[in-house]
Structures are given as structure tokens and as C-alpha cells.
């Protein structure tokens, strides 16, 4: 079973779950290649309090990496509890992967899972805090049952996308310094200097100019790929394809006529599902950020094109914009030469 993340439960994890002894904690991680959920460590103790003390110590050694934790009670017949531990200061890619895979593991482990809680801080991983969370979550259980699996995944991604409204004990790599926050406070990832310079150089006289960029998930940056001038509409697909050697999702902004820009998001077939998820979740906030950034330059993003493979790009929308510009210039030129003004014929009157 899988969800949007495309990550599955390994056979090794299923076996570890079934054989989990009483008063134990099974720590679960996403494999390094982001394909499977695997057991990381099993901790066993005599009491629940000491179990959580050992659990906290182990998670602290790997902080701020996210993890899932299954807790078995003193009575082996009781349903096991589930903890989703996703620190606020973990990398955004990891947070999204763990948030979107949560339902996979819960559904795959079946009816053996009982109470479910979510923690984001180390000081929450205590026996007392765990008991209080279970008691408070019982009151909200009915609300959670009203959401479908996809709605829960989307809710998790949306919560992660709005991190700017929350406090942090440690800065994310993507948050940068105070100056970067002021410039990019409405987006998840900041721009690298080259991309910032490229957009600072956009003007209302630009035409046939193309800026191509993508997300470096490891560095948590939006990076410039290339800036090209004199790119006609008929050359657009070829240039975009040439700038995407690894055939991954890609963003670009194209000045198809002076003062008018088209935002293009392409997601080639075969792209990793986790990349699709990150690019799709980031797109709207990125467009809004660019609109605000470019407003002072007298240009507007008035087209938003989204395709799978680049050969699906509908160029007629961009060609029509250039045609309108050309017709406007020709009309102005004709008017200045003859002194005459030609009006568009009126349609038939309404009956």
C-alpha cells in the first residue's frame, strides 16, 4: 500500500511489528533511497517511564531526523500506540515525506494500531507527555475520522507549507538570515544569488527572454539553471529541454511579449513522486512571490502553464500574445503614416 510519497512498508518492518514484545518501542525510518519504511531500532524496558527515557535518548542522538514510533504496552494484548515524530527544524523535504507517508504505515500495520499522537519536540517524548496527548486526542478522534486519506495528507502538507507563522528553536537552512526572510518570507525556499539577480534584471521591455530554475532539495534552495535571450516561441521547448538534463520537474518564466510573462511548470513522466509533491506544493506560493517581486518592474505574470512532458506545452497561447503585440505595432505604424484610424467592424445588432 502506498500514498502520494510512493513509499511502501518493507517485509522486515511487518515482521518486527508482529514480534514486538511488551513494554517496547519500535522506531521506524524511511530508507535512504526513500522507497521503503524500515525498522531502525527496537527498545525494550521494564517500565513505561524508563522505556520513554531510553527512547528519548535514542531519538536525541539522531535529532532533528523525523521518525515513526510504535509503542507496545505492558499488556501485549492491548492495541499498540503510534507516534509520528516530525521536528519543526527537520529539513522540509523530510517533513513532507514523513507527513505524506503517515497513513501508509498506519493502514499497512492494520488494526493492531490504537492511539495515535504527533510530536515535534524532544521534550514531548516523555511518559507523562505521551499519556496527556492520548487523553486530549481522544476528544479530537471523531473529527479526524471525517477526513479521507487524501485530505489528511493534503492537510499535513498545507501545515508544513505555512511554517512561516510558527516559532522555531533552530533556523531552517531555507530560512537564511534576517535579510533573506524579509525578501522570501512567503515561500518555503529562498533563491540563490544568481536567480535573485536574474529576476532583479527583468524589465518591461524584455521580449523572448527565458529564465529557467529548479529546486535543490538537499540545499533547500531555488537555483538558477539558465537565462536565455532571443528565444522565440518555436524554440522554447528545445531550450527548456536542453536545460533539463536529468529530466526532473522544472520551473521557468518566459517573456512572450514586453511587459507580459508566462510561468511554466513542467513535470516529465518518470519524475520521482516525492519531487512531484514538493514542486506542486511550492508552485502557488512561488508564483505569488514572483508577482509581488516583479510588480515594481512594470511586468506581470499573466499566464500560468502546467504540463507533464515539455512536448505537451501549448505554444499557441504564447504565439497569440506575440501576434497581438505585432498587430498593435502594425496598426500604430499604419495610423501614423496615413493619418487614418481604422476601427474594428461592429457585429450585428441584437434582436
TrEMBL record:
One BP term from GO: barbed-end actin filament capping
Principal localization reads cytoplasm
The entry's localization annotation reads: Cytoplasm, Cytoskeleton
ADF-H domain location, by residue?
A: 1-135, 186-323
- GO molecular function ontology, one term from the record: actin filament binding
CC terms in the record's Gene Ontology section: actin filament; cytoplasm
Quaternary context: Interacts with G-actin; ADP-actin form.
Protein family:
Belongs to the actin-binding proteins ADF family. Twinfilin subfamily.
What protein am I looking at? Twinfilin-1
Give the species this sequence originates from: Candida viswanathii
The gene it comes from is TWF1_0
Amino acid at each position: 500500500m502506498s500514498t502520494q510519497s510512493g513509499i511502501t512498508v518493507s517485509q522486515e518492518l511487518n515482521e518486527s511489528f508482529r514480534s514486538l514484545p511488551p513494554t517496547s518501542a519500535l522506531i521506524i525510518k524511511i530508507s535512504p533511497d526513500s522507497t521503503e519504511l524500515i525498522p531502525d531500532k527496537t527498545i525494550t524496558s521494564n517500565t513505561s517511564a524508563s522505556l520513554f527515557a531510553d527512547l528519548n535518548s535514542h531519538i536525541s542522538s539522531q535529532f532533528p531526523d523525523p521518525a515513526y514510533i510504535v509503542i507496545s504496552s505492558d499488556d501485549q494484548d492491548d492495541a499498540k500506540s503510534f507516534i509520528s515524530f516530525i521536528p519543526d527544524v527537520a529539513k522540509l523535504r523530510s517533513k513532507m515525506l514523513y507527513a505524506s507517508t503517515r497513513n501508509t504505515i498506519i493502514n499497512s500495520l492494520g488494526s493492531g494500531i490504537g492511539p495515535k499522537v504527533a510530536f515535534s519536540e524532544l521534550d514531548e517524548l516523555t511518559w507523562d507527555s505521551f499519556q496527556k496527548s492520548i487523553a486530549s486526542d481522544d476528544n479530537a478522534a471523531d473529527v479526524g475520522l471525517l477526513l479521507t486519506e487524501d485530505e489528511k495528507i493534503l492537510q499535513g502538507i498545507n501545515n508544513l507549507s505555512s511554517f512561516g507563522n510558527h516559532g522555531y528553536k533552530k533556523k531552517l537552512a531555507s530560512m537564511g538570515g534576517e535579510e533573506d526572510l524579509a525578501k522570501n518570507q512567503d515561500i518555503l525556499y529562498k533563491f540563490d544569488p544568481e536567480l535573485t539577480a536574474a529576476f532583479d534584471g527583468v524589465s518591461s521591455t524584455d521580449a523572448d527572454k527565458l529564465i529557467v530554475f529548479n529546486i535543490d532539495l538537499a540545499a533547500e534552495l531555488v537555483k538558477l539553471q539558465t537565462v536565455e535571450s532571443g528565444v522565440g516561441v518555436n524554440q522554447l521547448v528545445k531550450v527548456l529541454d536542453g536545460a533539463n538534463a536529468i529530466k526532473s520537474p522544472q520551473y521557468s518564466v518566459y517573456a512572450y511579449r514586453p511587459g507580459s510573462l508566462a510561468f511554466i511548470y513542467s513535470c516529465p513522466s518518470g519524475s520521482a513522486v516525492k519531487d512531484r509533491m514538493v514542486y506542486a506544493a511550492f508552485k502557488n506560493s512561488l508564483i505569488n512571490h514572483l508577482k509581488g517581486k516583479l510588480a515594481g518592474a512594470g511586468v506581470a505574470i499573466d499566464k500560468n502553464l502546467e504540463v507533464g512532458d515539455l512536448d505537451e506545452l501549448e505554444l499557441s497561447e504564447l504565439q497569440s500574445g506575440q501576434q497581438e503585440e505585432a498587430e498593435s505595432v502594425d496598426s500604430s505604424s499604419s495610423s501614423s503614416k496615413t493619418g487614418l484610424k481604422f476601427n474594428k467592424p461592429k457585429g450585428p445588432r441584437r434582436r
